């Protein structure tokens, strides 16, 4: 069984290994930390197993430390007392490229952390830290730098065998269930990693509830009484893995496959459950001359990205960088512009650019805009005004649209440019010597309600083709002519069941040649089959609905989409939203106003409205929505760390109180601002004591409320 569960560790007090105070030195860059050679286990190329005598769990001691929590984009500096009060600059480097940077002031103990509540945010982007990345720190008050390399060990899987009771009779009154179960943490590493030393590597499970004093009344405390349970690879007779009679452990590493594992053997149901439910970590200290510089903690249950409200998104949440230069050309006498560009370099770990929107803005009316979308790196903008000047704008898309970037201006039909686009494009400035012939092999087919596919053989000397549709049916919609450079086109916006004549002409700089024609009829629309509305949920200025998929009325009438209609009870105009799946959200509504929601399935012009079962209430009132994404309470310090979201981000605040009645109870913290990205956070010490039911409530200025349960530790 594989278990994955979110956790929240801290930098100070939340790490998994102890480090000492710093010492003065001129520099500790990786170039000076010469690796002392890996232990023999990595040189043999064979699988090595370390049993009950294998433990080097006490981390090496030494001056100040850089802790890298790479799974959650967090870095902590500890023990830099000699630099206390100075401004520290932390850079994350991948090769010679800086992928993240942060600046903050070390406290009186020489401590500072990034991307964790109470610490500093990264600047501009929250980096995704990967094995091999360098974390470098410099200080404002002296020419001194430290540097650590992110270790390669990575937790990939946590597997529980299941607990098998042995049926042993327990003392009267005991709740213990004895037996045997194993929990195995598996992972990978790079055998060529010069900074990885098996003697400085610990496989660890952390669970504050695994202390006897944390066991709730009426539950078995188990045999294990340890917050952290470490397993190491290198034998150490003074620190054996496990505790005799309480729990056992062994570890393996295989340089041939670059894999490692650590297995706990537990003897009570309580110990097995808490080990499986704990936080699973691979902790590696850098190999080299320094005794304790560079601790990487790879936490299985964590994810990268902003660690608190107000911090910038990670690279995959950033908008792309759009091209700033391109080749622009327009053939003599034409009404089109050819645009070609190259995809610019994107930030490290950013989402791939998958498309562009290119627009020509200008003509007789300054507001005129002609735009095309493409997944490639060239496009033809057609139907422009000959002799007019247009500005060409481009936007890039990677799941988010970039800001529009100007690529310059071009005069349509001027014959300027003439540069061949990347690939096999035709030079738009080339002038053929004669008019092209009528396209041969013209075919037109329709397998839908509102479109037709047209194709023909390429015509010698042609630089473009114009496809035109006409119909004798006065009710039929006729689309505008389509100009293309390839011998195929799709006509859209046709009328269901109508007959059309399609003509295609080829053209070059000397003019347009004769037309070829073909006929085609679109299919007849049939309304979709009946379907049901299954769920309606009000949100902040929105309503979300779910429904069953509507089947096509017949094979020729696929469901083309859905339309959600929210009709307000006060008689104002209804709000509609188009959807393609079986769920959608209508936004732009007014909080506090009652709306009736309906869903319509469409097949061309034919529609079917969803049935509303008696169990579904489709009359709802939008309001703000608040959620709690993290809730931790540390009893010994009465410390609260709570994070959440609110959908209303306009001058909105949330208020936190103890108890399960919204707006009532002892105050935890009031007037917590909601950030522009919808997040809010509370990091409070010496707060009120948490009641034994662990429940608290959150309300917002916009009228939302929720009740949540706090995770209690220590």
Automatic annotation (TrEMBL):
Keywords: Carbohydrate metabolism, Glycosidase, Hydrolase, Membrane, Polysaccharide degradation, Repeat, Transmembrane, Transmembrane helix
Record field: compositional bias (Polar residues): 321-337
Residue span(s) of domain Fibronectin type-III: 322-423, 438-529
Low complexity bias locations: 421-436
MF (Gene Ontology): hydrolase activity, acting on glycosyl bonds
Coiled coil segments of this chain: none
Pfam families: fn3 (PF00041)
Gene Ontology BP, a term: polysaccharide catabolic process
Listed InterPro entries: ECM_Regulatory_Proteins, FN3_dom, FN3_sf, Ig-like_fold
Signal peptide segment: none
Span list, region Disordered: 1-28, 300-337, 413-436
Transmembrane annotation, as ranges: 33-54
Official protein name in the record: Fibronectin type III domain-containing protein
Lineage summary: Bacteria, Bacillati, Actinomycetota, Actinomycetes, Geodermatophilales
């Amino acid at each position: 069984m594989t278990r994955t569960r979110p956790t929240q560790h801290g930098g100070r007090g939340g790490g998994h290994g102890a480090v000492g105070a710093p010492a003065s030195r001129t520099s500790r860059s990786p170039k000076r930390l010469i690796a002392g050679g890996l232990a023999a286990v990595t040189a043999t190329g064979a699988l090595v197993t370390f049993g009950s005598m294998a433990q080097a769990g006490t981390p090496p001691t030494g001056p100040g430390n850089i802790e890298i929590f790479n799974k959650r984009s967090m870095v902590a500096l500890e023990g830099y007392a000699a630099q206390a009060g100075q401004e520290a600059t932390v850079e994350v480097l991948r090769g010679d490229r800086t992928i993240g940077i942060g600046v903050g002031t070390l406290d009186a103990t020489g401590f500072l952390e990034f991307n964790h509540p109470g610490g500093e945010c990264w600047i501009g982007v929250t980096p995704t830290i990967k094995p091999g990345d360098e974390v470098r720190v410099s200080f404002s008050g002296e020419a001194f730098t430290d540097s650590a390399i992110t270790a390669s060990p990575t937790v990939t899987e946590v597997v529980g065998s299941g607990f098998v009771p042995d049926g042993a009779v327990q003392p009267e009154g005991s709740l213990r269930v004895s037996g045997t179960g194993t929990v195995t943490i598996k992972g990978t590493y790079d055998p060529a990693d010069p900074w990885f030393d098996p003697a400085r590597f610990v496989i660890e499970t952390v669970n504050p509830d695994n202390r006897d004093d944390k066991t709730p009344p009426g539950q078995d405390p188990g045999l294990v009484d340890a917050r952290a349970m470490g397993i190491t690879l290198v034998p150490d007779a003074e620190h054996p893995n496990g505790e005799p009679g309480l729990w056992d452990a062994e570890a393996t590493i295989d340089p041939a496959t670059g894999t490692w594992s650590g297995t706990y053997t537990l003897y009570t149901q309580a110990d097995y459950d808490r080990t499986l439910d704990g936080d699973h970590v691979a902790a590696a200290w850098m190999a080299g001359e320094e005794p304790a510089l560079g601790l990487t903690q790879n936490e299985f249950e964590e994810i990268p990205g902003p660690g608190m409200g107000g911090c910038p998104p990670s690279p995959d949440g950033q908008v792309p960088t759009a091209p700033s230069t391109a080749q622009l050309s327009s053939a003599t006498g034409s009404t089109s512009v050819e645009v070609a560009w190259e995809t610019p370099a994107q930030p490290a770990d950013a989402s791939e650019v998958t498309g562009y929107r290119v627009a020509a803005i200008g003509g007789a009316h300054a507001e005129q805009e002609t735009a095309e979308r493409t997944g490639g790196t060239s496009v033809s903008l057609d139907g422009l005004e000959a002799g007019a000047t247009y500005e060409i704008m481009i936007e890039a898309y990677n799941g988010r649209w970039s800001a529009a970037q100007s690529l310059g201006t071009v005069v349509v039909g001027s014959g300027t440019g003439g540069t061949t686009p990347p690939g096999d494009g035709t030079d738009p400035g080339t002038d053929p010597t004669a008019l092209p012939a009528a396209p041969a092999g013209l075919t037109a087919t329709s397998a839908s309600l509102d479109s037709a596919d047209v194709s023909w053989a390429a015509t010698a000397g042609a630089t473009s083709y114009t496809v035109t549709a006409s119909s004798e049916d006065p009710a039929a919609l006729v689309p505008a002519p389509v100009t293309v450079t390839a011998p195929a086109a799709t006509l859209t916006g046709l009328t269901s069941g109508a007959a059309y004549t399609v003509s295609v002409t080829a053209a070059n700089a000397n003019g347009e040649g004769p037309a070829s024609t073909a006929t085609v009829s679109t299919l007849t629309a049939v309304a979709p089959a009946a379907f049901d509305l299954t769920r309606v949920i009000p949100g902040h200025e929105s309503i979300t609905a779910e429904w069953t998929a509507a089947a096509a009325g017949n094979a020729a009438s696929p469901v083309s989409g859905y339309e959600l209609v929210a009709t307000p009870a006060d008689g104002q105009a209804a709000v509609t939203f188009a959807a393609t799946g079986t769920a959608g959200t209508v936004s732009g509504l007014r909080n506090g106003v009652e709306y009736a929601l309906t869903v319509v399935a469409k097949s061309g012009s034919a529609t079917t409205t969803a049935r509303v079962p008696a169990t579904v209430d489709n009359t709802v009132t939008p309001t703000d929505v608040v959620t709690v994404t993290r809730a931790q309470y540390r009893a010994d310090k009465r410390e609260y760390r709570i994070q959440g979201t609110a959908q209303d981000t306009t001058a909105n605040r949330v208020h936190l109180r103890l108890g399960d009645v919204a707006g009532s109870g002892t105050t935890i913290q009031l007037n917590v601002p909601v950030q522009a990205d919808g997040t809010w956070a509370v990091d409070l010490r010496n707060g009120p004591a948490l009641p034994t039911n662990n429940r608290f409530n959150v309300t917002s200025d916009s009228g939302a409320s929720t009740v949540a349960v706090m995770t209690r530790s220590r």
